[in-house]
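--- STAGE predict ---
source: upstream dedup step, 1 unique chain passed
mode: sequence only
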Amino acid sequence: MLELRINGFGGQGSVTLAHLLAQAALENGEQGQALPFFGVERRGAPVRAAVRMSPTTIHAHSQCELPDYVVVMSEKLTQAALGEGIIETGTVIINAPQAVPIENHPTWQVDAEAIARQAGLFNADGPLINIPLFGAVCRVLNIPRNIMEQTIMNKWPGKNGERNLGPAGEAYNTVKQVNA
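--- STAGE serialize ---
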């Protein structure tokens, strides 16, 4: 079983990203589980969500304490996200404008904010980075691109889905490993 935690700020789409990843697992023939964490969250406050993926039935329903992957939606949250725990061999996927190597952890970087801005993906809180991050995480987890695209189109049929395909695809193609 693969466990993944998403650390972001309220309004960045952490929960939507978790649901998209769980749905992509289902579309890929696996089991998927999204676990939003609802505390005293508000726009701009640190938030988290978790995802489990498995080829077999998932029996756990608690939050992920030591995930295999940590997705950091804002570079400012890097230390806090790692401080919450990650397995010793865990991988970090970070939204940052440039490479941010994390000591002792394989790290992948994508500039999801720039991709969202270029695509015109905005809400009242700023750029919607969850769509590019979905593409990047799919690539890192070896979820086929067609499954990523199918998940987007099933979530947002029509023009909204089509509008999200470009940014997700760009992130899928441009996410890069910083260190191994």
